[in-house]
Amino acid sequence: MTADMNRLESLMADAVEVGVRHVESGGLPFVGRLVADDGWVSEPGVNLVRETGDLTAHAEIVAIREAVETRGPSSLEGATLLATGEPCALCYRFAAAHSIAAVCFAVDRDTAAEWGFDYRAGYEMTRLPLAATAEHLAVPRGLVPFTRYVDLHRSDFTS
């Protein structure tokens, strides 16, 4: 891991709170954020699939696209991607294609599935390596965006 672990935990905790706010405004609980070796930190990217109709507008991809636009395509080499939910196979591949060295997530794929976000089938379809380093980075309120989403959309899960 290239970035300081305490700093990553703090930035992840902030991403989780962004996720809670995004859920409360009608969005999905996924947030992505990048930390570069030179200390630069991206603005949080949120999942915009519903808002845009772009099926690739996952939080991690949104954050990466914005970072490339801001800093240039080679600026992410060696960076760390923070994600509130473990990235799907598409997002892992997108991160790898941008030379992102590490991925940290607050909620793993199995826990996300327990809360109604089951994207695990995509991993089976993608048999290529997904990322150089992936690590669960537990933060105290890591699951809150997901539980809050279910609380707000309980009728969607009971019908």
Automatic annotation (TrEMBL):
Pfam families: dCMP_cyt_deam_1. PROSITE patterns: CYT_DCMP_DEAMINASES_2 (PS51747). It comes from the Bacteria. Residues 6-126 form the CMP/dCMP-type deaminase domain. InterPro entries: CMP_dCMP_dom, Cytidine_deaminase-like. CDD domains: nucleoside_deaminase. Gene3D superfamilies: Cytidine Deaminase, domain 2. This is Deaminase. The lineage of its organism: Bacteria, Bacillati, Actinomycetota, Actinomycetes, Pseudonocardiales.
